[in-house]
Amino acid sequence: MTDDPPVARIAPPSILAEPAPAAVLAALPGSRAVGGAVRDALAGRPVADVDVAAPFPPEEIAARLTAAGLRVHETGLAHGTVTAVLAREPKSQPVEVTSLRRDVVTDGRHAVVEWTTDWREDAARRDFTMNALSLSAAGELWDYFGGRADLEAGRVRFVGDPATRLAEDHLRALRYFRFQARYGRGEPDPAAVAAIRGAVPSLSRLSVERIWMELKRLLAAPDPAEAVALMEETGVLPAVLGPATLGAAGVLRALAAIGAPPDPMLRFDALLTHGAAEAARRLKASGEEVARLVARYRAGHDILPIQPAIATGGPDDDALRRLLAEQPRDRLTDAAWLRQAVNRAWGWQGPEDSAWDRFRARLAESPLPVFPLQGRDALALGMKPGPEMGRLLAETRRWWLEGGCTADSAACRHRLAGMMKAIHTETLPKT
User: What SUPFAM superfamilies does the record tag this protein with (predicted)?
Assistant: First the structure.
């Protein structure tokens, strides 16, 4: 095996000295940390986990790790990847270990690979130059494609020809924007942007699950607005989400300007002028994620007509209790952030920022009203289970809401009993 000499020696990140990564690197002579651990160490960012590459086929990697006392899980053996943990530590940090590889066949979604001992060849198949760095346990740094300089300059650049990298894996078009949001500064790389624009038609071949994963990762960046603006400009965003994304970057900028929390799901809602829940469902988001978007939409529908009251210091206490009784507090808060941002982004008249702040503070401080009756209360009054009982309980709750959610259990039971009596009287035979 021949290789270029390291380009520098740096202080390795402390995570490489932790038990599991240290054991992996020691068990595999010539292995190196690769990818995010090296990139983030150079960028001065926290390193959450370690990926390791080694110049051995996967079976030999597994055998060497097992002999060194590590448990090996074959998490991606077809692609040369295993995951190692320390057998003696139940909560050992997992370390993903991959054989050096070269691509044999690629189709934009999957690759057939074979093993190599050539580090440069392995680095050449990676997406961005800043991800093609590798680091030994001793701090020796290899940089085959100028990734360190690109990282320092805030330049997200594909390894080699951008069109070729995109043809190998269409998802890289989306990954580019995530890395641009997290590491990019200044003007984006023109060659990368041109290649991505040309690759837009190929995005239809991506699985919706992979699109959803990348969108959430992008939207978790500290400030994804400019990357999303570039997605709009290149045609990528409407290609994966549809034409309802018009102006999405402006709403994201407005969310940041008003101090909204950096919540990926709130930001996803901001990408679409309508139909966020339907888009998430199409992308096979989790049931919990879709339910949250549905609840946020309903909360926004309830907030829309009370904007004039918010602007003048309202709504009154009764109206606020009705809101909190009908919608989850956190979804009402989300809806308030989003409505405020949409008003600002689109230049629509609405409450001042300070009025929205007061409204959210009241939402946070107000006790949650809870309807004081349950089915057992109706049974105790002599009702039989069935649709009629459900209808009368719903009618009682509607009366409770109209009164500002202030009636207590005794008053609600009295109301329910009165409706039962009225129905009973109406059904008695006339004499």
Answer: Nucleotidyltransferase (SSF81301), Poly A polymerase C-terminal region-like (SSF81891)
CA distance 148 to 62: 31
Closest CA to 249 of 265, 273, 284: 273
Q: Supply φ then ψ for residue 74, to 5 degrees.
A: -85, 80
What pLDDT, in 10s, does the model give residues 366-389?
999 999 999 999 999 998 899 999
Asked whether the predicted pLDDT for residue 103 surpasses 90, the reply is no
Name the burial class of residue 162, with classes exposed (0-12), middle (13-18) and buried (19+) by CB atoms within 10 angstroms of its CB.
buried
Using an 8 Å Cβ cutoff, are 7 and 135 in contact?
A: no
Distance from C-alpha of 53 to C-alpha of 134, rounded to nearest angstrom: 9
CB atoms within 10 A of CB 366: 14
132: burial class by Cβ within 10 Å (0-12, 13-18, 19+)? buried
Alpha-carbon gap, residue 154 to 162, rounded angstroms:
17
pLDDT tens track for 213-241:
999 999 999 999 999 999 999 999 999 99
Which residue reads 């919706």 in tokens?
A: 208
Q: Which domains does the chain have, with CATH numbers?
A: 8-153 (3.30.460.10), 155-241 (1.10.3090.10), 243-369 (no CATH), 375-427 (no CATH)
Cβ-based neighbour number of residue 427 at 10 Å: 7
Under a CB-based contact definition with an 8 Å cutoff, are residues 340 and 311 in contact?
no
Helices 190-199 & 225-234 angle (0-180, nearest 10): 50
